[in-house]
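Render this sequence as a predicted structure.
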Amino acid sequence: MSIDDPLTAISSRAAHALKGRFVGTVLAPGDDGYDSASVPLSPAGRPGFVARAETPTDVVEAIRFAREERVPISVRSGGHSAGQWDTAPDGFLLDLSGMNTIEVLSDGLVRLGTGAVWGDVARALKNHGLALTSGDTTSVGVGGLTLGGGIGWMVRKYGLALDNLVQAEVVTAAGEIVTASPFEQSELFWALRGGGGNFGVVTHFTFRAHPLTTVHAGPINYHVEDLAPLLRGWRDVMRSAPEELNTTFLAVPSFGPEMPASTQILVCFADSDEAAAEAAVEPLRRLLGARDADIREKDYVDVLEDPKPAEAPLTIVANNGFAPDFSDDAIDVIARVQRELGGVLMIRSLRGAFNRVSADETAFGFRDSEMLVISAAFLPPDAPASATDWVRTLWAEVSPFLTGSYGNFLSGSDEHAIAAMFPPATRARLAAAKHRYDPQNLFSQNQNIAPVST
């Protein structure tokens, strides 16, 4: 985007207009810091300008500006936007990363700024003997992950990140600051927990954290030709395992000499009790093809990491779905499809606390699931459309055993993606909530729920 472009000139004038109402920083094309703040996938994806909020009042002003000037607004907390919804060439980006405070309150309550990242949260809570189940990575933002779910390393013990939310401070599309909880704005509170950023901009989250000093975590490595027997054995172990034991099955192809192919079960026993951890993990060590393990006591923050990206540019075709019953038939098909695809296969064990939340308690569906199955096929960047179609056709063989999709792992925002994310009754209720809190669909740069009046 050249600073001489007409669109850039318009963006600069709009940015200047907002600056007078803003405590934080407003960056237009050509300003120092704009390029690094906009973080595009391509030059065409850069936002018209970036507004970096520092206070809830900044958020109010940004939303009022977007509404009054009819300028599209996109919102970013941590920046892990798979669909790049935080880029809007004809609008602006509201960047919340500066709102990253971490406050430990009384009785295990923790108040987090929406732009805080989970690595910093885990590090801060460690000093208080507390932890929150979150995502897998240190750099993912509190806001985006929580609103979409949060399937973390303590999901079987404490549920999703959003299940531990007790209150949210929200700026609505009308530019009002409200508190959403089970006792105030309860329908908004319901919709926020799973409905994403459709209903307002959350500026602060209050969670209930849990006592935790250390965990026992690490990989168990396997060497097998056929994944099916290993998957069946793993499933059977998890069906009777204590809820402190959280595991993820991971099969990864080779990405070069420094990243050879591997088959692992990743373990996090969410307790410091070494004897209990050993007893829970031992059946996994005895599964077919087990080679070696590196399970050690560590701080919870050290379980979180950021995966190393592949060095070569690739086209990723990703799919996911929830398995209500991880049956032998489902396992046989998944193993066969994986042999043909040769990409990444990740399967996360659920149940426990995840299942104990009723289907209508939050906007996150598929609570009867046993596993979340995630597949990512890697194609050359110039692969023809037929290659993507081939991946989709193979995945369709797995689909009869799955239901829905986890939105935080989807890059799509079309009708197919939205229909997969929410059961019909949940989606209808979300549409009504959208009409109540954002009837003009100001918050549309996302996996969008269109407002529908009832």
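Summary. DSSP finds 13 helices and 19 strands in the chain. The longest strand covers residues 214-222.
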